[in-house]
C-alpha cells in the first residue's frame, strides 16, 4: 500500500471541502471517501486505487446520516447506517422485505457490520482484469488501454448494458432493490444538496467506463429516500455458485401489487447480469395490468433479455437471468403479506 494522508472530519461540509479537488471522477481521483472501507482498502492494497488522501467520514456528527426514519410517505436511510443495522430494523423487515433480504444475502456478517450503505452502492467491479494490475488492458482502470475481458475469462461478466469498451459487472445486491423501489439519493456537494433518482446514479460504460457514476468529484451521498408504493409484497432472489459469501450469477429484486391475480403494479431490478443495477422496464411494461402467470412471466423475461450480448463464457447468464426473474415474480405472488 502506498503512503497517503488521512483526514477524519466531524461534519459533512468539511468532508466535501476536503474531497472537492479538481479531478476526473474515476479510479485515479486523488481523494477518496472511506466509510467502512471494505472495498477501498482492499483495492488500495492491490494498488488498483492510489489516493493521496483518504477522508474517513465515519466520524461525521450528523444524526440524520446515522438514522433510519420510517414514515407514512416512505423511508429515509442515512448513508452511514451499516448494512447490519438496516437488515435488523424491525420496521424495515416488516414493510420493506426486499431491502432486508438483499442485505442478508450480501457479503458476510463481519463485512455487514462494517460496511456503510453509502459505500455499498459505490462498490467497484469484481472484474479480475480490473483488480489485477499485471493486466495492462482495462479501460476502467487505465482509460484507453482496451478490455482484456472481451476475449479473456468472462464467465462472471455482464450481458446487459455492455459496450465494446467494457463488460464489467456491477456486483452489489442492495442496489437492484433500490432501483426496483424507485429510490432517490440525497447528495451533498460544494454548492449544496441535491436529489437524484437512484436509477441515474450509475452510468452505463459506453466509451467512458472509468466514469462510473453521475456524482461530481467530492459529492457525498448523505441519504437514501425510498418512497411508498409496492413494498410489502417484495423479495430478493439470488443465484450464486455457493450459498454463502458469493456474488450473484443472477439475481432479481421484485415488488408487486396484486388485484386478485392481476398485476396492478410491478417493479423489477436485476443483478448479476448487467453493468449497472438494472431496472427491467421492458418486462414491467409487458406485465403491468396483466394476470401473473408463469407463461406471462416467461414472455416478459424473454423480452427483457432480448438485447443481451454474450461472450465466450457468460452465455449461461441469459438463461439463468430469465429463470431467476420468473421465479422471483411467482414467489412474490405466493407471499403471505402482513396486514
UniProtKB/TrEMBL annotation:
One of its GO terms (molecular function) is oxidoreductase activity. It comes from the Bacteria. The keyword tRNA processing does not apply. PROSITE patterns: FAD_PCMH. SUPFAM superfamilies: CO dehydrogenase flavoprotein C-terminal domain-like, FAD-binding/transporter-associated domain-like. Keywords: FAD, Flavoprotein. Residues 1-231 form the FAD-binding PCMH-type domain. The keyword Flavoprotein applies. Signal peptide: none annotated. InterPro entries: CO_DH_flav_C, CO_DH_flav_C_dom_sf, Diverse_Substr_Oxidored, FAD-bd_PCMH, FAD-bd_PCMH-like_sf, FAD-bd_PCMH_sub1, FAD-bd_PCMH_sub2, Mopterin_DH_FAD-bd. This is Xanthine dehydrogenase family protein subunit M.
